[in-house]
Amino acid sequence: MSKTNLMLEKANSFDKAGVIKHEVAIALGALKEFRQKFPFTENLASIEWLDPDKLFKVNPDEIGEFFSFLEKRFNQPGAPSLNSNVYRNARLQIKEFRNLLRTVVDDRKTLAQKVDAPWERIGGFGQDKALAKKIIYCFNSEKGVVLPIFSNQHLRHFTNRVVDYYSAQTKYLSLGQEYEHYTAELLKAKNSLPITKGWDTLYFTRFLYQTYPPPDSEPLGVNASSDRRIGFAVSNEQLELQGFMRLLGELQKQGKINGEQFRENRSIWMQQPSEREALTQRLKALLAPST
Predict the structure, then answer these.
(1) Which ranges in the chain belong to alpha helices (H)?
(2) Which residues make Cβ contacts (< 8 Å) with residue 114, sequence separation at least 6?
(3) Residue 52 CB: number of other CB atoms within 10 A?
(4) What is the spatial distance between Cα 33 and Cα 126, in angstroms, rounded to a whole number?
(5) What is the pLDDT of residues 52-104, one digit of tens each?
(6) Beta bridge partners of residue 57, listed in sequence order
(7) How many whole angstroms separate alpha carbon 43 and alpha carbon 139?
(8) Is-contact 21 204, C-beta < 8 A?
(9) Distance CA 257, CA 284 (A)
(10) How far is Cα 56 from Cα 92, in angstroms, rounded to an integer?
């Protein structure tokens, strides 16, 4: 079976209960709020008004709102946590950081040029430029040219798993050029199938990490107890929702509830937090005789 046909098969069976789709909707809502607070793409002048405290606060030291969003919402499997000095450096070199932000939102710049911009001038932003890639994704996510995958190694891994034929000659490419190359290959694969073409890039990324986990990352299945999931960190509430959705899915599979009842129970769980425990126990009672 070709890699394309295998991906089609896996995509058809992915996230049947809609749990990940719901998580992605929450994540995209959070990203929208972030973009409203930092409207750099829509209003270039707002970059000049960026308050240093939004990056890193002093007396006492505290990560500012801008980087706090990136740190809490994005979680690259296999990537080490950044030292807070990285954010302090951005504050200390805010003029340089503002120039880099202008590059990030410049539609005349390619993805490669945005990654290859001189991020290393700010201590801690160099190396694989994972933090820079997160920023680039945040302000270009709607353009369909970038994926929330911040490791070139992971991009290469996914390309090897889902693309049948592609140019693997990247030896003489810069970090940004390689990043753009593999991103383009994965987007081409995504858009080649009707089922994945309409997926948001974050949802597609979740599919890749769950279906083809890189060797250096933890398995990201729906049943995973860890909240280290690609794209955005998962809250305890979301983890509880996953368990509840699995319960509804099993009840529907056994014929204990129909589609309308599935939706009604999900709505009650979402809208009435105080009823969640009792609702879950009632539904588990329906499930018990068949287990």
Answers:
(1) 3-12, 19-37, 65-73, 85-92, 94-104, 111-116, 130-138, 152-162, 175-191, 194-197, 201-211, 236-253, 259-271, 276-287
(2) 103, 104, 106, 132, 136, 140, 176
(3) 14
(4) 28
(5) 999 999 988 899 999 999 988 876 555 555 678 899 999 999 999 999 999 99
(6) 62
(7) 12
(8) no
(9) 12
(10) 9
Question: If 0-12 CB within 10 Å is exposed, 13-18 middle and 19+ buried, where does residue 154 land?
Answer: buried
The 10s digit of each residue's pLDDT in 211-264 is 999 886 654 433 333 343 444 444 455 567 778 888 888 888 888 888 888 888
Q: Which two tokens stand for residue 272?
A: 């009435």
Cβ neighbours for 94, distance < 8 A, ≥ 6 positions apart: 50, 52, 55
**How many residues are given for the chain?**
291
Residue 291 to residues 242, 254, 282, 286, 287: CA-CA distances in angstroms? 20, 10, 15, 10, 7
Backbone phi and psi for residue 63, each to the nearest 5 degrees, phi listed first:
-65, 130
State residue 62 phi and psi, 5-degree precision: -160, 135
Q: What is the pTM of this model?
A: 0.75
pLDDT tens-digit map of 218-228? 544 333 333 43
Give the whole-angstrom CA distance, residue 287 versus residue 10. 28
Which tokens is 192 given? 């080649």
Tell me, what's the pLDDT at 225? 35
What token pair was written down for 206?
């979740």
Residue 31's identity, in one-letter code, is L
Tokens of 214: 């890189």
The tally of CA atoms less than 13 A away on the side-chain side of residue 252 is 17
